[in-house]
């Protein structure tokens, strides 16, 4: 495998310590950005370049902030914003924008002053944003951030040697299962298929397993586990793409076999549908991330189980891993307040609140050894999967990967297109984008 071994190990260690995926801004309360100029803010924040704490930074007079958050994590966002306002007297407006969409939206809305002051992105989007000068560096809180968080999360928050992000959660995915239906977690996808043959009944909308079969993030395990990869040379060579090599195609043939367990179109599966069916017992197993943990614990109670992803064609399943990071819009009219919020909303207490509210895995070292995390059997299951996960590449060209592959997977699943044919086409599209078109 051609991704950097160090990053794999540090990503695993990040979670092992815990055992250890909107409305328009067009009004006067838009984080102060309506009056923004078409140039990024000067990086002259008080204390810039020096180690600082949140007690030493003062928000600009009259500052208000807009923060983009995910729908799933909005309960946390509302609470942390309330705490921030109470402490610093800065009003915070929360808007729902899916994290993978935020850099594209920032590219469009940042220069015009319509974007959020603070954004939440997967670390693989950082390169695109930073290389386009859309973000302010994490400077005044940089040393504090580095000291407080895991090495993997700092790697994910850094681009071209500069720290930009404020890490708040480490993520990979695992197998959720209903113990009242599945007595023991399956060891292989062959086991999953065997169980599903006894449980799946399309006429009753009942399925042995469900996951988002059209999404590269959740299906990278089929590509990587038998020798496929994304970019070569430690994930940095845009011209060396292993999504269609022999190992990747072997894994994708196993992907095709699972249609017998889940005989529905890729477009008929989304997070809301999957969540509803799993909560009612009509889906016995779900492949998803820690953001679903709190809700699933409420719905299933002691019947909820979590285990590492089953093996694929006899090989250990290798999943994507990522770091969720806050970043500050370079066009923010209130950079002091924005940086203060990003630091406040990602500190130890905030990460423990996020875990309690959503079920996330912290990156903060002290939070990882807190009993709330260390004694949690569910979080430890994600830690086990993290040992066999790979951080997503963060070069700007990563943005060119999603659309072609997310088009190829439904062709394979829905239309029975040969995996090699579909992936050859996707790889060519990625290369064309890399060589002639900016990342989308």
Write the layout of secondary structure elements.
Layout: H1 5-16, E1 64-69, H2 74-88, E2 91-96, H3 102-109, E3 118-122, H4 126-131, E4 135-136, H5 142-148, H6 151-156, E5 158-159, E6 162-163, E7 166-171, E8 174-178, H7 189-199, E9 207-210, H8 216-224, H9 232-235, E10 237-241, H10 246-257, H11 271-279, E11 283-288, H12 293-300, E12 304-307, E13 319-329, H13 335-344, H14 348-358, H15 365-368, H16 371-374, H17 377-386, E14 389-391, H18 402-415, H19 419-436
Parallel strand pairs: 1-2, 9-11, 13-14
Antiparallel strand pairs: 3-13, 4-13, 5-6, 7-13, 8-11, 8-12
Task: Describe the structure in your own words.
This protein has 2 domains: 5-171 and 321-391, 3-Layer(aba) Sandwich (D-Maltodextrin-Binding Protein, domain 2); 174-320 and 393-436, D-Maltodextrin-Binding Protein, domain 2 (3-Layer(aba) Sandwich). By secondary structure, it is α/β, with parallel strands linked by helices. The protein starts with a helix and ends with a helix. It has 19 helices and 14 strands. Strands 3, 4, 7, 13 and 14 form a 5-stranded mixed beta sheet that branches. Strands 9-11-8-12 form a 4-stranded mixed beta sheet. Residues 33-57 are annotated as: Disordered.
